[in-house]
Amino acid sequence: MLPHILLVFCLTATAAWAQSSTESSSVAASDSSSVASSSSSGSSSSSNDSTQTESVLTFSQTLVTVSTPLPESFTGTQYTYASFNGQTTRNTSTATVESQNETSSASSTNTQITRTSTSESLTAIVGGGQTSSTGTASSTSTAPLPVNTQPCNGHVEFCNRSYGNITQVCAHNSAFAVKNNAGSNQQLGIEDQLNDGIGMLQGETHYVNNTIYNCHTSCDLLNAGTWQSELETVVSWLDRHPYEVLTMLIVNSDFTDVENYVPAIQNSGIERYLYIPPVTPMYREQWPTLGELILQGKRMIMFMDYDADVARVPYILDEFTHMTETAFSPQVADFRNCSIQRPPNLNQTFARTSLMNLVNQNLNTAVDLGALLGTDSTDAILIPNTADINTTNGQLDIEGQLGNRADLCVEEWDRAPNWLLVDYYNFGDPGPGSVFEVAARMNGVTYNRKCCGVASAGTTYRPSYFAAVVALVIAALHITMVELRKRPAAAAPAEAPAKKKAAPKKAAKDAEAPVAETADAKEDAPAPAAKPTKAGPPKEGDNIELEGFGGEVETHDGEKTTLSKLAQSSKSGVVLFTYPKASTPGCTTQVQLFRDAYDELTATGLVIYGLSTDSPKANTTFATKQNIKYKLLCDPKATLIQAIGLKKSPSGTTRGVFVVNKEGKVLAAEAGGAAATVEVVKKLVKTLGGDTGAEGVKKAEEKADAETGAGADGGDKVVADTAAAVADTAEKIDGAA
Predict the structure, then answer these.
(1) Domain-by-domain residue ranges, the chain?
(2) Cα(406)–Cα(395) distance, rounded to whole angstroms?
(3) Among residues 352, 372, 414, 683, which is most buried (max CB within 10 A)?
(4) C-alpha angle with apex 192: 190 to 193, nearest 5 degrees?
(5) Phi (first) and psi of residue 463, to 5 degrees
(6) Burial 334-364 (b: 16+ CB within 10 A, else e)
(7) How far is CA 70 from CA 274, 354, 373, 560, in A?
């Protein structure tokens, strides 16, 4: 019977593999030494022919660096900035170009516009399925609203979060992904960028022969095709991803009239997705949530740096009345501040409280344009400094890396950046995806996509293959276990008790006791005393000496204390969750999650504390504003934070959670996002069955030992665990192929 069933599942797996191989989009595995190349059309190549050397990338042109840095200031009459004279309510009667469902005088006079209007369907955000509906919700219904389980931009938390309160990665000159061209700023195309999690597409455009092109300085240097072709790629992606909200920042390099962009917008079909705000400018706290934008079907917000005119083209918003920028295209790796460069002469308080912000984390090198093009030009241009790209895009708390820069911006602005602009987003330190890890940390979530250049599992990543593999393994293991259970049980020799995870060693006299030990004897055995662990941060299962551990800290209301005192005053133990900085978006989310789950988390006697390097004043303000029931611990020298292994080097705090019981047993110790830290404690409370003392820990460990296969029902646990492990391995192997 077994061979026949295995044959059926093998055939199923083979068919699923063949089908997924033919249906999947081009997949390019990317690691720190091999990254997929991309054509200018936005489709990624499946060949991994780029080897990371000292300069990371190689180019076909001749590069001659210029010793004198190019000026970085934006001076000249062409650089104009709107004044902040309050907000204006949208007046539809004066707009030259209106929305898709309204009359457009531009479409009737501009011969470049060839597309006709189409209807738009609305998306529903309630369940896990990605379905659309052309109907509208009833405003008079009294039925309770369903709980949303559909992620927005990859996270359920974002559905109710304001567009102006989310950190996203911006691909600098996103269309400039031309292989072996020194003028490129990206290696992977638009499609891959969006799949990986790029939230803002930015790019330099030029108006040539009545057409907008994506060109770098000159179309002779790098021509990535028409802007309309880029928009068509984006529209196709938005059509297939109804729960994603994107941003586009147009660099109007020729300062051409904004209406020259209208034909490409209307011909590409992206106009139906463009959001038109009710007032201009929209201040940071006034933006709708991602969920609201998705429900409206307006999932693209478009900005232009210079010469936008919302009176004539209302869906192209002026950049600098909505956001600020740090220094653009720096040539020196000095990322030690987040000073605003544009717009100039801006009130700093107003900028921090009312405007969104973009951090330019791209390092450049000035090169001779004549040598690059093979002409006698004496001009110089800026191209990405690829020699230092891994450092520039790194997620670590090291000067010069994006992770460190983002934290500096939080300190200066009292909030996280909205956009992190980078070149070659798929490079970084410690590896690909580092830029997304930084954004996730700012948002208080965990990056959950596959980077880089690998289509995500939720879209085109061959789910049928994995399902078949898992089914095959489960069937085979289940049948094997059934057959084994049918066999008569052999007389089992006496054996030693199962080894417990991280359990203290028994005393010598215990080793002399009889090998066979009854369950009752185990139950009645006293809990081992806590022992100090070896040097280094304690891990789950370790025992620590509480006295003197981590030094002295202070509660936000001014009480000096230690971890030992906190543990002894608790009923069963202490939960310490760490956060980088009070009153920032990610940290606010974290304290709110612990606040909202407080009763559940403390029902077993655990006491909750937040822990950061903030001052008592900052934490008091934070605690009062968030109306929390627990205390926040102030650890300005990070002695306790370092002791539990959550201190960043050289400075800063890693978000995470540490749980220890009254006897010094470490129940949890790990870094994670805001939601993940709460889930660790919830899982711990559930696992211990309401008993977080030493006996509860012991019972939980014995329960875990029994579930590994020692008991009569252990086989099903082995089947489930093995199947999960095989599926995970298959996914990793396929992702590296």
Answers:
(1) 149-443, 526-692
(2) 9
(3) 372
(4) 60
(5) -65, -30
(6) ebeebebbbbeebeeeebbebbbbbbbbbbb
(7) 36, 32, 19, 54
**Block residue for tokens 């306790």:** 640
Instruction: Give the E-state strand segments of 209-339 in sequence order.
Output: 211-216, 218-226, 246-252, 279-280, 300-304, 316-318, 323-326
- Please calculate the CA angle 116-310-348 and round it to the nearest 5 degrees: 140
First-last CA distance in the chain: 34
Q: What is the per-residue pLDDT for 17?
A: 34
Confidence of residue 509 (pLDDT cuts 50, 70, 90): very low
Residue 378's pLDDT is: 59
Query: What is the per-residue pLDDT for 391?
Result: 94
**What are the φ/ψ torsions at residue 609 (nearest 5 degrees)?**
-140, 140
Is residue 698 very low, low, confident or very high in pLDDT (cuts 50, 70, 90)? low
CATH number of 149-443: 3.20.20.190
> Is residue 321's pLDDT more than 80?
yes
pLDDT-based confidence at 508, cuts 50/70/90? very low
Per the CB < 8 A criterion, the answer to whether 635 and 553 are in contact is yes
CA 322/CA 306 separation, integer angstroms = 13
pTM of the complete model beyond 0.90: no
Confidence of residue 331 (pLDDT cuts 50, 70, 90): confident
Active site residues: 172, 216
Pick the CATH number of 526-692 from 3.40.30.10, 3.20.20.370, 3.40.50.720, 3.40.50.300: 3.40.30.10
Q: What is the amino acid identity at position 463?
A: P
CA distance 656 to 571: 23
Sequence-distant (≥ 6) Cβ neighbours of residue 411 within 8 angstroms: 581
| Residue 580 near residue 404 (C-beta atoms within 8 A) | no
Nearest-Å Rg of the Cα atoms of the chain is: 29
